[in-house]
Amino acid sequence: MRSDVHARALRVGATLFLTALTAAAAQLSAPLPFTEVPFTLQPMVVLLAGLALGSRLALGSQLLYLLAGIAGLPVFAPSGALPPGALRLLGPTGGYLMAYPLAAWCVGRLAERGFDRRYLPSVLAMAVGLAVIYAGGAVWLAFFARSVVQTGAVGLQAALASGVYPFVVADALKLLAAAGIVPGLWTLFGRMCTPR
Prior knowledge:
single chain, mainly alpha, Arp2/3 complex 21 kDa subunit ARPC3
């Protein structure tokens, strides 16, 4: 009974920690002059949440993150031009934000199948999640986003040019660096380190 309560508390704590870490990563953002999509550390935290928490808890952590932002808490990347709260989801970064729960879930499902135990499978799982984030962001930016500068859809080519291509190299380097964290924890601590 006591170990069950302890395990539940560990799962809740880990989920809340990854939610807070996603919010903190959003604050470390750099605007780019050629796009309304800033460079942030959020995608790596979202992907790490999937590897560390598994599908359900990772999904929950990212849904909590979105709910906090929708409620108006300052958890989204700072922006002088983009609206706060729920309106942020209508802007150019909305597709990326809305893709976070699905990306975390996908990586978590792969982690539950053992992709979190070794480095190369972890890279593959995180690459799948990053592709989900890019797809959600590019499709939203291309066809649905309300832009600060323009009102019409920009189209897929322009969305890829401003919302995906500029980020691929940096995100790939971050992914390669971050992919060793969870397998390293497995090596050091084994099953005790995972809150699933």
